[in-house]
Write a structure and sequence with these properties.
single chain; four-stranded antiparallel sheet; 48% helix; globular; Cyclic nucleotide-binding/CBS domain-containing protein; RmlC-like_jellyroll; DUF294_put_nucleoTrafse_sb-bd
Length: 596
Amino acid sequence: MQDQFNFDHPPFDTLTAEQRQDVLDQTDIAYFNRGETILHPGQLIDSLYIILKGVVEERHAERNEIYAHYTTDDLFDIRGQFDGECRHSYVALEETLCFVLPTQAFLTLMTDNHDFAAWFQQDLQSRQQAAAPQKNLSEFILTRIDNGNIQPAMVIDGQTSLYQATLLLKTHHLESLIVTHDGSFGMLTGTDLLYGAVLEEKPNTEPVHLLASFNLIAVQKGDFLFNALMLMIRHKIERVAVKEQEQLVGILEMTQLLSQFSTHSHVLGLRILRAGSIDELAEAAATLGMLVENLHNNGVRLPFIMKLLASLNEQLMRKAFEFAFPARYHERLALMVLGSEGRGEQILKTDQDNALVLEDGLDAAEILPFAEQFSRYLERLGYPPCPGKVMVNNPEWVHSLSAWQERIRLWVRQNTPHSHMQLAILSEPHFIAGRESLVRQLQKQLLAAVRGQELLLSEFAAQALRFHTPLTFFGDIKQSEQGLDIKRGGIFPIVQGVRALALEQGITENGTLERIRLLTDKGIFEPDFADNLSAALVLFWQLRLEQQLARGGDGLSQQIDAARLPRHRRDLLRHALHVVKKLKQRLEFHFQIRNL
């Protein structure tokens, strides 16, 4: 039977050929009848059990509480290998065959094989990373800015003539120069010189400081290339200065990034920024799905993909806003996105969730025709209408700042399921275009309105407990014929629970991962639990994205087929769902939730 030992699943896939043979040589086979107790609480542990066939239940002997359900290729009792004795009961629920590996042999593998040891010693986050493929594009994302990817900066005095500057660019084959003038640094590009000479007809004896741009955007040497990429997209530029502390050391060009970044996401960003019509913008937007799939297939970590997509989606919506709303309104209102887009947690396009905040005195009726046009533009870009009509073409989501503030106060007073839903939708506003201060004031008002509202926050947190965690009575993964709804079972409880805690603590950050970090800083979560909670959420996102891509990029699909996952990924999923279960227990205790 030893030839049936499965070395294809973690952690045994990390063993060398010699170590595998040692396992086979030292492993016995044990048979247990249905209902037979394999391990008792307090029993000294001398072996690790690996299930070949059957089902084993882990339970608390006195309280009869079920902890977990183990089946083929699962291992138990791992804790006992280190503690020396068993804490719980392990009972065969059906006829069960197990490989029995002596504890001493297991501990020898732990000592001799670092990867094998890491699988048991590290938490969910580390195990998830160990199970994930690492590919070359991930290395780019984590590459830092250094002398190998920047070009030296040629610095010239601001009184240098246009002719001399042009000659320097030609002679040294440069795209740009750094200009010093009145104690400041500025950027001068070949395009600046061309426009100055041809369009403004400046004489070639004019000093270059008249054409240089002195609102210099800079990054620090040692920062990530990815962050420089985000900066270029956000500021609509093609190069940034590189500093070491306060000293200017070079320039990072878009072309240098593109030479290393094979997915050309920056090219997509530039296409968005340069689009002159909604048709050109739609052509750029149509490639977002391919970009996501390319990044995912190349092993880029999901939080980086989400950050990049959030920035590109923001650029798309800002451009659509500029097309839809006349310039005279741009400083009199603010466009904000809500929900997963507001949290920066949307990857593939889902439905629209947005609203407008108008300055007091601006009539909503005057704005609605342009808002209707904006909603049609978003639909053209691939964002379907929101089933709940949380969109700017719905007058319910277009109000002046004062009117929004009054609605918030009303929802807090009402304290009903409907008002909870409205507060939840509005609790994560992310500014897109217009006048940002309007959104900031709205968010400040919302946080002030819910502060100290213990009953409201308790009922708000209770929403995280609405959906059953998809675990069986025995602690294994449970799914229907349609699959496992990963949003209801995993993502929503974490997002809603963390949202409630963030509102209670007055946290202004929208992203769930960042909220978890800040809640940990405030002592609400222990660091280990916070790491596992974050890793569980990332795993849920990852599994959902894989299923959505397999279904042609359907961003609305929430079902995953857990039965088709490899054994080690099902193990991670089960572990993550138990983390969700623990979060729910914490929420019940923290907010004193009763009678659910």
